[in-house]
Amino acid sequence: MTDVRIGKSRVYASDLGLGTNAVGGHNLFPNLKDEQGKAVVRAALDNGITLLDTAFAYGNGRSEELIGEVLQEPAYDRSRVILATKAAHDPAKDGSFNNSPEFLTQSVEDALQRLQTSYLDIFYIHFPDKNTPKDEAVKALHALKEAGKIRAIGISNFSLDQVKEANRDGYVDVVEDHYNLIHREAEVELLPYLKENRISFVPYFPLASGLLTGKYTKGDVFDSSDPRSSKPDFQGNRFKQIVERVDALKPMAKEYNITVAQLILAWYMKNPFIDVVIPGAKRPEQVEANAQSVNVRLSEADYTTIDKRFKEE
Ligand code: NAP
């Protein structure tokens, strides 16, 4: 793993992290087991991954609690782990977004309790709310940074204008947003702005919820109890077209003696606009396989081929 600096902060994280919405995220995925989630976290730490990306919204705090429990185990050292969490969903307001300084300050305290730690390495505002000026919300996080409760300031799901407003004082260290080979809108304006302003970028859904791993075939259908059935990428012609493009990478993956998932993760790690890639996982074996992608040395020519293949109309 290579360590990357998060924005202008003193946080250095592995360039491959772990997304943990399937660790305790019982509100997001059916049939998750807490023990399996903890095994996923252990697999990440055992394979050199230092950044764990969680949120209150993943199981209403359950993901944070399970991570906190793993970090209490003798095998692990809190100081070697980069804990990133997020909040905005206000349980007192039916889960609607709240970015008020009071709410964010209390959310950090609550997350510290659940994670059984005295500081968070990265704290993100998970979603913008309607009322709070973005720079006011970030100022509250700056105060928490000065108090030593958080080490880096993040925002997530903000439009470019909202990012600019949030960063009025230059306090934002990292942005987390939806981006992957099949959702590339951020490339037009957001990613250049972040680079110019020394703000790190962490894309979410890097594997498009598993669709970019190469494990699907064009004939697959998802029944209504499956969360994938509500995602447009998993339906109709769009699904078939994506599967075709992913399948077309299989010969290249074979040349490197790796899987398509590893090839695609290596593409993100070579991308100069991306700082940390955070694939999620339901099983420890998936984490172990994904961790191998850091050893892939993707050539410039293959990087460009993948880039172009997913840009074609
Ligand atoms: P993802 O990383 O695109 O896909 C992860 C899923 O792909 C896994 O749960 C697993 O699902 C499958 N998978 C992973 N590795 C695999 C492998 N080697 N082989 C085959 N299948 C594999 O999606 P995500 O986990 O939803 O998103 C990543 C992370 O981003 C989340 O965990 C979360 O931390 C973060 N996130 C943040 C926001 C935000 O608003 N800031 C929003 C969404 C996500 P199956 O086994 O079920 O196929």
From TrEMBL:
This is Oxidoreductase. One of its GO terms (molecular function) is oxidoreductase activity. InterPro entries: AKR, AKR_Detox_Biosynth, Aldo/ket_reductase_CS, NAD(P)_OxRdtase_dom_sf, NADP_OxRdtase_dom. The keyword Metal-binding does not apply. Residues 16-308 form the NADP-dependent oxidoreductase domain. The keyword Oxidoreductase applies. It comes from Enterococcus florum. Keywords: Oxidoreductase. SUPFAM superfamilies: NAD(P)-linked oxidoreductase. GO terms for cellular component: cytosol.
